[in-house]
Design brief:
By secondary structure, the protein is mostly helical. The protein has one domain. 72% of the residues lie in helices and 0% in strands. The protein has 7 helices and no strands. Helix 2 runs antiparallel to helix 3, helix 4 runs antiparallel to helix 5 and helix 6 runs antiparallel to helix 7. It is globular, with a radius of gyration of 16 Å.
Length: 209
């Protein structure tokens, strides 16, 4: 896999992003932690809408802000990535808000535990990135594409009868981001490579139930 930029240029993008937008990263983290707590403590139909809105916000942010505003400076393919993330936001609106087919916290105990584990990992992601050698601000923080994908995969795993449609783009990004992480040495992103098989296994299990 060829990358049209250096590792230094890649981390410089995070430095510029974090210095300019760190309050937004904190706000996104707090919103994600709040909805995860709601899923774990008291999953109920009225909670589903708030969870979907939080996920939509993360995917719009990743596409319109990180990819389109910052990542395009070093990678022209980021325009396509931005469209991919905005498309996932649209699919979440359609499936979760219009058709109301996402019921968070309704899956089996094993799926809920696996999902909560991935989501918690995504919330711990900023600290792990720093602990693994990427000094702030030149480090990925919550709200950028990879932790968004990990968090979304975790939250979606808690859904029984999870629609395939909303998993396709997270599956694609788990492979794109995971492969790039290996090349760039972003160890915190290696978990992305596990998201795809875990989601696929959950989908298959739900369809053979």
């Amino acid at each position: 896999m060829f990358l049209p930029f250096s590792a230094d240029a890649f981390f410089d993008v995070f430095a510029r992003y974090n210095l300019a937008l760190w309050p937004a990263a904190v706000a996104l983290w707090l919103a994600a932690a709040t909805v995860l707590l709601a899923i774990v403590r008291s999953p109920q139909p009225q909670t589903d809408r708030l969870v979907v809105i939080a996920l939509v916000t993360l995917w719009v942010w990743g596409g319109a802000v990180y990819h389109a505003v910052y990542f395009t400076a070093i990678n022209p393919a980021a325009w396509a990535f931005a469209l991919l993330f905005l498309a996932e936001a649209g699919l979440l609106v359609w499936v979760g808000l219009v058709r109301r087919q996402l019921s968070f916290g309704s899956a089996s105990r094993l799926a809920r535990l696996s999902g909560a584990g991935l989501a918690l990992y995504a919330l711990a992601y900023p600290g792990l990135s720093i602990a693994l050698g990427h000094a702030y601000p030149a480090t990925p923080t919550f709200g950028v594409p990879c932790p968004t994908t990990i968090f979304s995969a975790g939250v979606l795993l808690t859904c029984r009868r999870l629609p395939l449609l909303v998993t396709l783009i997270p599956l694609v990004w788990s492979l794109i981001g995971g492969s790039a992480a290996v090349l760039l040495g972003v160890a915190a992103d290696y978990v992305l490579l596990a998201c795809a098989p875990v989601l696929v296994a959950h989908l298959l299990k739900e369809r053979t139930r």
